[in-house]
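Researcher: We're teaching a course module on how sequence relates to structure. For the next exercise, students receive a sequence and then see the predicted structure as C-alpha cells, so they can try to spot secondary structure elements on their own. Here is the exercise chain.
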Amino acid sequence: MSSNIEYTSPSTQFTSDVNDNTLFKRDDRNFINILGVEQLNTLENISLLDIFLSKNKMIEPHYHQNAAELVYCISGAAIVSIFNPFTKEIKNYPIEPGQVANVPQGWWHYEIATENDTHLLAIFDAPTPDVILGSDILKFTPSNVMAHAYCLDETQWKKTIAPVVPSTYIGPPKDCNRVKSTAENQKDQKEQKDPHHKHKNKYMPLNPYPPYRYPNMNPYMNPYGSNPYGSYY
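Model: And here is the predicted structure for the students to work with:
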C-alpha cells in the first residue's frame, strides 16, 4: 500500500473532533460539520459531512464533482432526492435510522428532513468533498446568458432570482416571506378542517407538489417555479 503520509512526523494527526469544524450554520438546529484532509491529515480517500436538520429544512440542490456520496441516517428521517442523468428522472428515497442512500459522483441531488432532530452522515470517497451549489449556479450565471439560452425575459429572470443567497446550503432562508400559492392555501384550509390528517403518512406531509407524491417530477429543476416548502417556515 503506497501513501504520501509521513506517519513518523510529529504533526501527523490520528484523531479529530468533528464538532469543532463547522462548514455552515443556519441556527442551532440546522448546521453542517465537516471532516476532511484539512482537518485530519492522515485521511486519504475519505471525508464526511455531519448534518443536522429540523423538519422541512433541506440541503439545497447540488452536486459533488469529485466524489460519490453515501448518506446514512443516524436519527430522525429524511428523503434523499437524486436526478438520474441517464433516465432523466428524479427518484426520492426515504431513509430512517440505519438506512442509506447512495449518490453517484456528479449527480444532482438534495435532502429534506421529514422529522425534527434529523441527523445525517454523508460519507465521500475523496479527501475533501468539493461541491457546486444550486444557489451559486443561479446567482453567478450571467442573467443575459440564462435569458438567451432559455428564451427568458432577462428583467423577469433577475427579479425572480434576486432573493437567492449564494451558498445557501440549508434552505429555506430565515427571512423567507414568499407568498403562498393557491394550492398551499387550500392545503392549510384542509389541515384546519382535519388537523390529524397530516400524521397519516409521515412521508407525505400535505404537500400538493413533488417530491412526495410524484417521484419522477422535481420542482427544483425549474428554478423559477414555486417552492413547495414555503408553508413550513
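Model: If you want an answer key for the exercise: Helices lie at 134-140, 143-150, 154-161, 182-193. The CA atoms of residues 36 and 47 lie 5 Å apart.
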